[in-house]
């Protein structure tokens, strides 16, 4: 993209120091009120978003938000409170509220700060801060160019759900009474378009978007509009399918959802509540022996790169799955104590996952499937986290001889996640870069597909 500038008056480091000073003040207030330990999270966000539709501006929104959260511990009794008011009396009141809550709660043997010896000592940045200084008028021009390109791309595009451009900046500080203080800053910019093709009962909607930490990494507006148009008209005149068992390929943006189900099942909160189909699964083979997932928290310009987690624990490069075998769970300090284990540095989530590929790109994967269902959209939330039973509405394309034959919708795909994981035949190299889960398309050998025919 062109006409992109970087800030000449970037005050983010000053604002981070401000938040750090507030966090230190809150810790002092907690200590003065008798708390044995405390932790503070301070954040500040600001952004600009514009939306246009059918060539007209619909909304222009500028936002500035901040939040402060305080958690205090009296032994193993815990209390939390929050505020967005930075006045001294408000800070004092927030700490007092947290302390009052803690005094009236019962002991929880798993409560407390993460262990002091697990605190990160290296808190470097990972090149995630790239402000976009265009004004609202320039954002409107980009959104209009995107929508116009999409509407002009094909005569069958007769309507639009609009185009949008957004930019967000986030600053955060985490500090605790171990003496740890960590600062983070990041940006995210997005350009997207949604279009409508056809008329009446034959209308179809689809779209496309581009997102990046750095505005120069976004796709051009006209390219986004054309991609949205191509995807929309490709869905016209869909059919259903006869109910049966078929090979199923999840496009890269849909494949991430399968990895998301795995992450939910191996998260500490699900495990100690016994609400996971993967209880006691560490050391067990779940996937084919060529399959692996690596956590990579130190990637430059990574979506979720971080030297420390939400509790200050040092992150580390580590396999989640190696040669098909689950290596560990995803634990913060509370869930780790509940399970009799140690934190894995995943309080707050995972930090960039790389899913291994054993196949070529998208076209090669279609050719290897030959005949089956390509899923490009999923609907509903029909996943049982306790049993792993899986049933979701879907739309996509029927594949014959390794090529798209026709669009399909009104279908349901079903299986069991444990069986689906083991039945993965290929992961493509067509990684969708718009997520912290780097994963290509996933081909599953056989699933139940329920259709109307």
Automatic annotation (TrEMBL):
BP-aspect Gene Ontology terms: proteolysis
Gene3D superfamilies (alphabetical): PmbA/TldD superfamily (3.30.2290.10)
Annotated TM spans: none
GO molecular function, one term: metallopeptidase activity
Domain Metalloprotease TldD/E N-terminal: from-to ranges: 38-102
GO cellular component: cytosol
Metalloprotease TldD/E central domain residues: 130-236
Top-rank lineage group of the source organism: Bacteria
Domain Metalloprotease TldD/E C-terminal span(s) in chain numbering: 243-451
Classification via NCBIfam families: PRK11040.1
Protein family (similarity comment): Belongs to the peptidase U62 family.
Name of this protein: PmbA protein
